[in-house]
Every structure is written in C-alpha cells, then in structure tokens.
Prior knowledge:
By secondary structure, the protein is an alpha/beta fold. It has 11 helices and 12 strands. The strands form 2 sheets. Strands 3-2-1-12-8-7-6-5-4 form a 9-stranded parallel sheet.
Amino acid sequence: MKAGVSFYCFNKMLVDGAISVAAVIEFVGRDTEAECIEPLSRYWDEGRDTNEQAREAKALCDEVGLAVSCYTLDSDFAVYDEAKHRECIATSIARLETAQILGTDTIRLDPRTSLPPEARDEPDLDEIIARMASGMAAVADAAAERGMTVGVENHGRLVGRCAQIAKMVELADRPNYGVNIDPTNFRNVFGEDHVEATRLLAPHVVHVHAKDFHIRREPQEGDDWREIPTGEWVKRAVGGSGDAQWPEMLAILKAAGYDGTISLEISLPDDIQGSVAQGVANLRRLIASLA
C-alpha cells in the first residue's frame, strides 16, 4: 500500500485562495512523507484549459516525486433529466483524458443526483441506483478502452449506504468498476458499522479515502463536536490519532488483496498543513506495520 493525500485536505485554503494547486503539490511532495496525491476536478482554474493545467501539475508531481493515485470527479447523474444525465456521462468520459495526462489509471465518480421537486420527498432509491449504475457503466466502458478503472464513492446522504454501493457495483457489472471507499462516511452519515462495511466491500475496492475522528459516546461541548446517527459525538482528528480504527480497516483491505493508495482526506482547520504532514506520517507507520 502507498500513502497519499487528497487535495480535499486543503479545501478551505483552495476555496479561499490561500493556496494554489501548484503549492499543494509542492507542499505534499516536499514537506510530507506522501508517495501519491489525489487531484479533484473542482479545483482547476475555470479560466484556463484544464488539460494544460493537468500537464503542468503532472510535471510538478514528477519534479517532487509524487504519483497521482486517482483523479476525483464531481458528478451529478441527474437521473430524472435525460439531457443532463447524458451530459454528466459525456463530461465524465471527457475527463478521462485529463486523468491520463495526470498519469493515473483511476477515476472516482460521485453517486449524486439532483432531484426535481416531485421526487424530493419520497425519491425512488432503487430507480436512482439503477440509473446511476447504468450511467457509470457507460463511463466504465469508455475507461476500459483506455485501460482505466472507475470507483464509485460512498458519498452523500442519498445513496451512500453499504448495501446501496454494493448494489451499484452489482448492477454496473464491469470488471473495471469498483468502490472508492471512504469508511467513516458509513458511520458519520448513516450510522452504519464502518469497519464491517469495509469488510463487505473490500473485494471491490479500487481506491481508499482515510478520515479519522475522535469518537465519544456522551454529548460533548464545543462547536467542533457534532452528533452522528449512531448517537455518538465526533470531532476531526489528525489522521491515525483518532478512534476510526485505521489499523483494523487497513488490515481488512490488505487481507482482501488491496495494495493501492490510502489517500488521507482529513485535516484540522486551525493547522491544515501541519495536520496533513502528521497524518501522512501516521499513515506510513501503519502501512509499514502491516508488512
């Protein structure tokens, strides 16, 4: 396994203009122990050609010794709007070229759909999952022609449960289609056992996001704490220092044969860079302990 960093760790800085894409790559490559980095499509400069920016990013990654583990795409499959649904598929396929320029053979898709007013109160989740799976299968077919793999993330509040993600993989039924697993999303969003979800989905995992949290059973004071569906209270932790059971999850993935990247996707808002560097160091140490 390799230790990586998601651009999302720097989301606040990137959105506020406090750091650039190039500066993120420089920091991760020179000031952390990371081996890989994970760009997100949302962070490119809208005023410039995306593929040109990707070439610049790839050159800088090569300079600082980073591989690109995955290109994470924002996607809205708009399953109730045929024109927008087809547009999402076409946009995702077009972004495969950007992924190849970055030097990765893996992309992540977001299982998201906008909903019209009439479907918002009681959305037909089975229909939504089937339509998403069909759209993602079309992207996977295009990706296969380029020797690439597609991962659906358990992301969002609509169809991010373990059984729903497993169903999407079953329906898409493509050898190059699997799961970009983000284990703590299962617990924090749906109240599911995130370790058991990791065990169930491990054979299908193609990329991993790693978040960590302090977890308490009793209510906690302070704005940094929030209650989750399990009735527990959580607060962001430096990766590898919290209660999200990283050793157990990494061991499960390793036993299932996963040897790809574990991409850190958590940082502390008051010390983003310092917490990323420490989180990567903790991740490297845990990976080494599995050998």
